[in-house]
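Session log. Operator J.P. requested a structure for one protein chain; no other inputs attached. Running the standard single-chain path with token output.
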Amino acid sequence: MPIFYFVIVNYWCGESITQLLRSLAQDSPDQNYQILIVNNSPEDRSLDAFSTEFAHCTILETGENLGFGRACNRAIAWVADRDPGAIVWLINPDAWLPAGTIAAARSLLSQADWAILGTAIDQPDGRPEFRGGRFDRRSGLIEPIAQEAPTDPKIQPTDWVSGCSLLIHLAAFRVLPQFDRRFFLYYEDFEFCRRYARQGYSVAIAPSLRVIHATSTVTGREPERKLRWSIGGYLLALVIHGSRWALVYRLARILISAIIQWPQHPARSRAKLQGVADAWQSWRSTRNGSPRR
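Structure written below.
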């Protein structure tokens, strides 16, 4: 069974990462895994002690905030250079693993062929947050499926999986898998899954594997920026994978809502318009539609 490399992107969230790393240590005392933290906040020195406190932990400094996808690209390339057959497990800093998850993953994944795999994600109070992703190209609908776990615990195909807990089997890919660097935050996981699915790689969900996620612990600190990144990522995702009708319809709705909300919520309206501008600039920078890595 290949080694798991847990990849965590840090942006001022050392306290949350501590909880995650402790859950890993408790879940798998043999520590037969590696931890790679990509530091998107160079001034954050809360990570300095991790390399000594937690075995097999490496800090990868970026020198700037690269966003989620580009930070993950650095980590994926770092792992592939050292262990091209590894399993990269992307996991949010504000998530953690229940007891027995790593052992269950090793048992399940050794019995199946897969390339991109998501896990079930639950909120801390037990409510289901993610059980797979749905995409309707014609309408532009991109939504998570949040329901109780299905009775069949086997790996099941799905349209996309969440970057909150996403596994990549490097040995399954002909070339190094990378996120589209035009996405700063939000919808890069969707685009990643749809692009590789179109190339014939499997995208699936493992309902029996579960992580706990304290939703928006990190991005919820800056709601306007979160809205801007979400709008920009969503529209860019539709440019790449949606229908023209879906793009026009969704863009019109966003613009109309920004205009209507401006008198009472100018900051939210401004964030929506900035998101539209971000998507436009990203599209113009690569009109041929090929992902920039």
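Operator note: Helices lie at 14-27, 50-53, 68-82, 101-109, 188-198, 223-241, 244-261, 266-285.
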